[in-house]
Design a protein that fits this description.
Length: about 300
């Protein structure tokens, strides 16, 4: 596959904070690449460097085979950027916002392209509505339409579904799937680990560093330990007992705990004994396949 984004030894600091700390990886043409991590991991800083809004302290970025620093004008015509902060104009209509972005990018005879994008994002019935009147999900779909008006080869999306309702979030992902079918490369950041399951490859980022980069399947299979899931009550009490009385990693999900163990046959008995001594009712237990969240938390703890 052709490499369309190549990041080499990228570093960016703000005072004493290493926002991006010497990372290197690549993105292939036509894939959806997910950059995932908690707030402050360095995701937004990375994307802002990749679209030319920030200059790195060290390292290089190649987009479509061109060094970004020396070919900014050429590269910017081939990329689109949807920022974390909503940046459209509330006092303009849907149509007028797309026209404005078409003008910025020098797109002539944009009307047909605008109609295509409105149909694509299912915003045609709202084309004459002021943007400030739209729902959060509609605003994000319009922002994506404006990002696509000049037909970029690569789009960068910075946490595009944060704060969007579940139905609009699902619609947004359907749109992204259709973009992949058109051969557009998607580089997106997200704090949602479930979203990265849809990506071709994912980079787990924490404190400016990449701690894993592979397909979601391979990342999950990289955990050589077992996940013991126990449904119990009271769950929060059980969680604190495991945290304070053992060295096991434990995560709480509603009424169940995910406990990282090396060997179920050996490790279950001390956990069962702790529950019995502290009046914790065990309702059910099983060994489950690791999720991306299990792996990410495990890697962060290391």
């Amino acid at each position: 596959m052709n490499t369309v984004i190549k990041i080499t030894d990228l570093k960016k600091s703000f005072s004493s904070i290493n926002a991006v700390d010497g990372v290197s990886y690549h993105v292939n043409k036509g894939e959806m690449f997910g950059l995932v991590g908690p707030d402050g991991a360095g995701k937004t800083t990375t994307i802002r460097i990749l679209v030319g809004l920030l200059k790195p302290d060290r390292g290089s970025v190649e987009i479509l085979g061109h060094n970004f620093e020396s070919n900014k004008g050429l590269v910017k015509n081939e990329i689109g950027y949807l920022s974390q902060k909503f940046s459209l104009y509330g006092d303009l209509t849907v149509d007028e916002n797309i026209e404005f972005f078409a003008d910025i990018h020098g797109v002539k005879n944009f009307q047909e392209r605008r109609d295509e994008l409105l149909e694509f994002t299912r915003l045609t019935p709202f084309r004459d509505q002021l943007v400030e009147k739209l729902s959060g999900g509609m605003k994000q779909k319009l922002a994506l339409a404006c990002t696509l008006v000049h037909k970029p080869q690569i789009i960068f999306l910075d946490e595009p579904t944060t704060g969007v309702d579940p139905i609009s979030r699902r619609d947004f992902w359907k749109i992204l799937s259709n973009l992949l079918k058109e051969g557009i490369t998607i580089f997106m950041s997200t704090p949602y680990l479930d979203e990265t399951e849809r990506c071709n490859r994912v980079a787990l980022m924490d404190k400016g560093k990449i701690i894993s980069c592979d397909t979601p399947k391979n990342v999950k299979e990289s955990l050589s330990l077992q996940i013991l899931e126990i449904v119990c009550s009271p769950t929060r009490k059980a969680y604190h007992i495991i945290r304070t009385n053992t060295n096991y990693e434990v995560q709480m999900y509603g009424d169940r705990l995910n406990i990282v163990v090396s060997n179920y046959e050996k490790d279950y008995e001390p956990i069962r004994k702790l529950f019995s001594e502290n009046s914790i009712e065990e309702i059910d237990k099983r060994i489950i396949s690791p999720s991306l969240e299990n792996v990410f938390v495990h890697l962060m703890s290391k």
